[in-house]
Amino acid sequence: MEGKVRVRFAPSPTGPLHVGGARTALFNYLYAKHAGGVFVLRFEDTDTERNESVFEESITDGLKWLGLNWDEDHYQSKRADVYRRYLEKLTSQGLTYEQDGGVYFKLPAEPRVVVVDDIIRGKVEFNSKNFDDIVLMKKTGTPTFNFANVVDDIDMSITHVIRGEDHLSNTPKHILLYEAFAAPIPRFAHLPLLLNLDRSKMSKRTGDTAVDDYRRAGYLPEAMLNFLAQLGWSDPDGQDFLPLDELVKKFSLERVQKAGAVFDLQRLNHLNQHYLMRKSLDEYIELAKPFIAHLSGDELMGRFALALIQDRAQTLSEIPGLIEYFFKTPDYEANLLVFKKSSPEQTGKGLNATLTVLEALEDTDWNQVKLQQILDETLSAEGLQPGDMFWPVRVALSGEEGSPSPVELLEALGKTESISRIKTAINKLV
Ligand code: GLU
């Protein structure tokens, strides 16, 4: 019988959690949970010069935000005795030598072909004659990445190593170490590189940004998860929007592509807008709060405003820009009031007629249905075109060329504020 699946996400905490790392964590998580296995988080933190606990926190916070809960965690910095024990196994077989204070693993005297059998890439061959002897311990007494990584994968009974393609060239060396330990070799799956839109390799410099930057920019974890899942994997049924438990059900490494995965921010925006649109208004308001804390105004009006723009914002951080005019008097040029098929005279007529009927409207009738009705009546009574009235009223209320409809704005802003903005517009025209 096959043993239980055990996979690990093994970040070196030398920087915050980046999207590439998050994608690796996600694919490990999905593979483990799909198989009813164990997802291990292992901090490869032996490089004490470059590790920082803030980065460990960034990694754990990012994983929690995405809902990728791990079953075990380990820190290489606390496992020095394990590496010593394993080193002894190699030394006692005469497979190591010391030089300049470091400990090295001797490669086979006769060059040989090492085959990496990769679930995603198939068989990849390497010749050991192209490698240098493998450093196991540095002269500082700390194990190297290659050594600690293999020892831990053996010691933690890791069955599948799922990691970025950048590690493929290390894998044949790792296989030689597994063989030296007479340990079972895990299955390998090297995930495709992340590419920029122009298909250049993505790196921390060219845009591979920290997951936390996306959270702060107002992306939702569910959108991020779907986006990350599609960086190399695709749903067999072509679905874009899948909650985490559905991803678990549908994920397989067989559907991961070899070719580089293009990081398309437009896609992420699209996914995010989809999830934002589907929030209840109360949830949406809660999500928006931290992003609009600097806008002060009537709470009910804020609620109206958010309801009106809920399907327009792609990220939460766009919200203040979209609703700002509800909270402060808009600033615009007088000629924006005049629709291209209208004239200043007709526009003035439209605004004045609107002002008159709005002033006469009872507070209790101040709702979209009634407002639409009286504006329509006024339009035909005055013999005006929609562009002579609805256009300037919308601009008067929002200062924008594109915004919700005039009656939606009137309802949200309320009688006093609406009337004051229409008067301002009339004054601008003369
Ligand atoms: N610490 C390595 C890294 O962050 C892990 C490589 C692996 O998953 O084996 O790239």
From TrEMBL:
Keywords: Aminoacyl-tRNA synthetase, ATP-binding, Cytoplasm, Ligase, Nucleotide-binding, Protein biosynthesis. ATP binds at K204. One of its GO terms (cellular component) is cytosol. It comes from the Bacteria. It is found in: Cytoplasm. Residues 4-99, 103-269 form the Glutamyl/glutaminyl-tRNA synthetase class Ib catalytic domain. It catalyses: tRNA(Glu) + L-glutamate + ATP = L-glutamyl-tRNA(Glu) + AMP + diphosphate. A motif ('HIGH' region) lies at residues 11-21. A motif ('KMSKS' region) lies at residues 201-205. PROSITE patterns: AA_TRNA_LIGASE_I (PS00178). Its main location: cytoplasm. GO terms for molecular function: ATP binding; glutamate-tRNA ligase activity; tRNA binding; zinc ion binding. Its EC number is 6.1.1.17. GO terms for biological process: glutamyl-tRNA aminoacylation. Residues 285-426 form the Aminoacyl-tRNA synthetase class I anticodon-binding domain. InterPro entries: aa-tRNA-synth_I_cd-bd, aa-tRNA-synth_I_codon-bd_sub2, aa-tRNA-synth_I_CS, aa_tRNA-synth_I_cd-bd_sf, Glu-tRNA-ligase_bac/mito, Glu/Gln-tRNA-synth, Glu/Gln-tRNA-synth_Ib_cat-dom, GluQ/Sye. CDD domains: GluRS_core. Catalyzes the attachment of glutamate to tRNA(Glu) in a two-step reaction: glutamate is first activated by ATP to form Glu-AMP and then transferred to the acceptor end of tRNA(Glu). Monomer. Belongs to the class-I aminoacyl-tRNA synthetase family. Glutamate--tRNA ligase type 1 subfamily. This is Glutamate--tRNA ligase. The gene is gltX.
